Predict the structure.
Amino acid sequence: MILIINGPNLNLLGKREPDIYGHESLKDLENLCQNWAKEYNNKAISKQSNHEGEILDWLHTAESEGFSGIVINPAAYGHSSIALRDAIAGINLPVIEVHISNIHAREEFRWHSYISAVCMATIAGLGFLGYKAAIEKLANN
C-alpha cells in the first residue's frame, strides 16, 4: 500500500495557475494514482493537507498503518520545512518527492528542496505523470 501525500494549496489544482499546474483537479489526480497503483497490484491512499503538522503525523504513522512507501508532493513545504525533512529522515519507508512543475525552471527560491537529500528520488516537471513514475518505482522496490 502506497501513501500519496499532497501538501499546501494542491487542493486548488485545476483552479490555481492552470498554466503551470494544469486543468485537472486533485480528485482527478487521486483517481489516476489509484488506477496506476492497481496496475502494480497495489493500492494508493491519497491525503492532502495545508497544515504541516498533519503531514508530519501522517509520515510518523505510515509504517504502522501498513504503508510500504510514500509519494509526497510537499509543495511549498519542500522549500521551507526542516521539520518535514527531519520527519522523512526519521522514518523507515522509502519516500519519493514529486513536483508537478519543473521547480528548477521557476523562481529561484523553489530551486532548493530541503527534503530531496532524504528521499529515494525526486521527480519534477512531468506533471501528473511524475506520480505514476513514483508509484511504479515504489511498487517495484
User: Anything to note?
Assistant: The mean pLDDT is 93.
